Amino acid sequence: MIIGIDIGSTTTKAVAVEGGEIIKTIKTRAFDAVTSATGALGKMILESNFDISSVEKIIITGAGSVNINKEIFGITTHKIDEIHAIGLGGMFLAKRDPVVIANIGTGTSIIEASKDRILHLGGTGVGGGTITGLSKELIKTSVFENILKLAERGDLDQVDLLIGDISEKEISFLDKTATAANFGKMLDTAQKEDIAIGIINMVFQVIGVISVFAARSRHTNCVLVTGNGSRNQIGQKILENISNMYKIKFEFPQDGEFATAIGAALSEG
Prior knowledge:
By secondary structure, the protein is an alpha/beta fold. It is built from 8 helices and 12 strands.
């Protein structure tokens, strides 16, 4: 059995892989890389009743992996580049290659992966960290669950300038409900709920549009969405709206949030 651990800036994810199949996934939070890695492994073993001797090796990746330079619990431990891990995990989840991947974490990375090469196409600093950071200042909460609950009751028309606000007709392929400017209206009557949905909408629209451009540049009509942001249901709906406009399909695979850890476990280390 091989354990892949993705030590992120906010969340650490681990997967157990045996015979090329995922047999367990877990998530933990901790304040430092060592605690994150050892905590994830310990939780994996305790929750699954694994014998620690059955772990052949551990492969770590992510921002926090740079701070770990020794074996974990005496088990052979290797590192893999995060971009490479995302590419491998994305191909495994998509069951095809090449594949364009939008990995949404604190920020967002766009990657093209194939059996021949894994290429970092670019990305944006806009991601989950943008949502929590802006929410902390604008609506006085950085708890993601609270932000989502507020956003579910929000009205974008209170904060965003829409095409219908500036034109009586559709513009190009954009109908009257499409965004002309994020936060370009910002009415005095806007409530926390409206600001919350405005923040999420802005973040996922940015991610969606750069993903569309990346997909078109690689001559594909499909983008695989991975990382923590892949399970944001409000974000999924926003990306689906972008899909309808640009005719680029967004896929949200099961276990997409674990793609980086999966890729680490499947690598040769």
